Amino acid sequence: MARRANALVLLDSGWSCEKVAGALLLDDDTIRRWHGLFIEDGLEGLTRFEAGGSACLMNDEQQEKLKAWVAAALPRSTRQIGGWIEKEFGHVYAGRSGLIALLHRLGLAYHKPKVIPRKLDEDKQKAFIATYEKLLNSLPDDEAVLFADAVHPTHAARPAGCWAPSEETLAIEQTSGRQRINIHGAVDLETGQTRMIEVETVDAASTIRLLESIEAFYPMLVLIHVFLDNARYHHARIVQQWLAQRLTEKEAE
């Protein structure tokens, strides 16, 4: 303990890790490790010696209660866990590393939930990919392929990490509501070029506006392939009528 304290005092006075190590007849990695323990856990870090471990502050019954609470509450941080331990049992963990070591001994781990895609059909995806690749392989120079969709910033659910039993697999389902900014746009995956319009409402009218914007962006192309999802507004009657009218005008030209 005295050597660790001396090392920190010398570091605080401006000595380098190499110089402190030479004065204390140690290697500089050891000095860096001691300094890291102090930065992370304060005095508790300096007083902890890993060889043989230190006695746990909590008895077996308290550890089981902690484990059950974590499994039920899924706390997001060690600070929240430490606060619960102090409130329930009166034990204070001043440093994170000691508390993390306890949680790991109890079979707990820090998880970040996976997002579960909605209505995923792998067979349809594979069939579409095959069709798309066939189209690209035979695409002439006077044609282009784009994917169009709407996006709604701040809409998606955001997974947040939490402590839970290590064998647990956490996941959340994607949300489906819409709010704030609505952007209707298209992207050419081969070139990275995009066309985007900001709209009050994503609907058939905004679909037509987007298609007009795409057409204006590619004035020299004979054919533009635009892939859309199954949103009702993408298949609305007025959209089909607009497409039929543009086709008639193109043929007349």
Give an account of the 3D structure.
The chain is α/β, with parallel strands linked by helices. Helices cover 48% and strands 16% of the residues. It contains nine helices and eight strands. The chain has helices spanning 2-12, 17-24, 28-47, 60-73, 78-89, 96-105, 122-137, 204-217, 237-252, and strands at 108-111, 114-116, 143-151, 162-165, 171-173, 182-187, 194-199, 223-227. The strands form three sheets. A four-stranded mixed sheet has the order 7-6-3-8, covered by helices on one side. A hairpin with a 6-residue loop joins β6 (182-187) and β7 (194-199). α1 (2-12) packs antiparallel against α2 and α2 packs across α3 (28-47). It is elongated. The N and C termini lie far apart (89 Å). The model has no long low-confidence stretch (mean pLDDT 83).
